[in-house]
Amino acid sequence: MNKLLYIMSIGMLGLLFSCEKDESKATMLENPIVPTFQTIPDLTLTRAAGTNTLKFVGTLLNPGYNASAKYFLEACPKGNNFVNTAAILSDVQDTSMLITVSDLNSILLKKFPGDQVSEADLRIRAVMVVDGGTGSKTFEYTSETKTVNVTLYGLPRLDFITGGVVVGKVESALGNGVYAGFVKFDNTKTYTLKDPDANKTYGGNSGILSENGSAISINDNGWNKVNADVNGLTYAVAQYRIGLVGSASPNGWDSPDSPMDYDAATGTWQITVDLIVGEIKFRKNDGWAWNLGGTASSLVHNGANIAVSAAGNYTITLTITNDVGELGSFTIVKN
Question: In which domain of life is the source organism classified (predicted)?
Answer without folding.
Answer: Bacteria
